[in-house]
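User: Please predict the structure of the protein below. I'd like the answer in structure-token form so I can feed it into my own downstream comparison script.

Assistant: Understood. Taking the following sequence of 107 residues as input:
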Amino acid sequence: MTHIVLESCIRCKYTDCVDVCPVDCFREGPNMLVIDPDECIDCAVCIPECPVEAIKAEEDVPADQQHLIALNAELSRSWPSITRTKPQMADADEWKDVKDKLQFLQK
């Protein structure tokens, strides 16, 4: 099993989760993070670190977010690893409560 980054990360990209990951499984895109399912060890230490609750265990991904399981796997193959916290996106606080953000994903 692995963990999945959900849509709520899009246009926020808080990176609090990155520092606690013991295996450096996060990958960084232009406006979102994803988790590499081949690297994730299912430790769950990242879950409470996300201020927008964008990380869930695969079995806990809501039905309307199931497409993010494949998307995390796909994007993790091409996006670079991120291992240190960075500032969130400039307008992250404005986007943190917005729903249905997939249309804003930049690959």
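That's the full token string. The mean pLDDT is 97.
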